[in-house]
Amino acid sequence: MDKAFHDAMAAGYALTEPALTLGSPMRDGELANDARVQVALSMLNRHGLIAGATGTGKTKTLQLMAGQLSEAGVPVFVADIKGDLTGLAAPGDGANPKVVERVNSLGWTFEPSGHPVEFLSLSGKLGAQVRPSSLMVRSTTRTVARCGWICDAWISRAAACGSRIR
User: Fold this and answer.
1) Residue 80 and residue 56 share a domain
2) Which residues of 15-30 are buried (b: 16+ CB within 10 A; e: fewer)?
3) What letters, b where the CB count within 10 A reaches 16 and e where it falls short, cover 34-72?
4) Do 77 and 149 belong to one domain?
5) So what's the pLDDT on residue 132?
6) Of 51, 63, 66, 119, most Cβ neighbours within 10 A?
7) Cβ proximity of 127 and 155 under 8 Å
8) What is the spatial distance between Cα 159 and Cα 136, in angstroms, rounded to a whole number?
9) Can you tell me the distance from the alpha carbon of 95 to that of 74, in angstroms, rounded to the nearest whole number?
10) 83, exposed or middle or buried, with CB in 10 Å at 0-12, 13-18, 19+?
11) Radius of gyration, alpha carbons of the chain
12) Co-location of 56 and 138 in the same domain
């Protein structure tokens, strides 16, 4: 690992406040596991974008962020059209070989856990039925603004959205 790169990553992501951990810096295929890429919780009340080609980990990144926000007590609302994030309600499989390989490569400890979720549905078949209306759109926009984080997919926590990001 290039020392200058490692030192720059360690200094740039060294946070003294509560943060989400997204992973480890990588250069030339080598991970710097002792310097974690982090985002301060206080910064997550701004807009964000997770972009990439198919199979690059966008959904996994959203899962990771939503799970850590849930653990920090921050409500998250995710519009999950394809149902990719519904698994957040159940603990992951810590014995899955892909999970074991990834956790070992990052030098992490994995503790499977589920997160509180509330499923909403326009049809009422796959969750609590909601009626689309202009009032709902305006209300949802205000709720999301108070939650502080907007994603492409939404998980509605049962907790009150008035919680502040620490």
Assistant:
1) yes
2) beeebbbebbbeeeee
3) ebbbbbebebbeeeeeeeeeeeeebbeebbebbbbbbeb
4) yes
5) 66
6) 66
7) no
8) 19
9) 28
10) exposed
11) 18
12) yes
Q: Which amino acid is at 17?
A: E
What are the residue ranges in the chain where pLDDT is below 70?
132-166
| pTM passes above 0.90 | no
| pLDDT value of residue 40 | 92
Structural domain including 106 reads 47-166
Cα distances (Å, whole numbers) of residue 141 to 41, 110, 135, 166: 20, 34, 10, 21
Pairing of strands 26-27, 30-31: antiparallel
Angle at 42 between CA 39 and CA 44, to 5 degrees: 60
Kindly write down the DSSP assignment for every residue of 105-144, as one continuous string. Answer: HHT----------B-EESSSSSSEE----HHHHHHHHHHH
Contacts of 22 (CB under 8 A, 6+ apart): 36, 37, 38, 39, 61, 64, 65
**H or E element that contains 19:** strand 19-23
Q: Do 133 and 61 have their domain in common?
A: yes
**Tokens 């698994």 -> residue:** 87
The pLDDT value given to residue 166: 34
What residue has token string 């620490």? 166
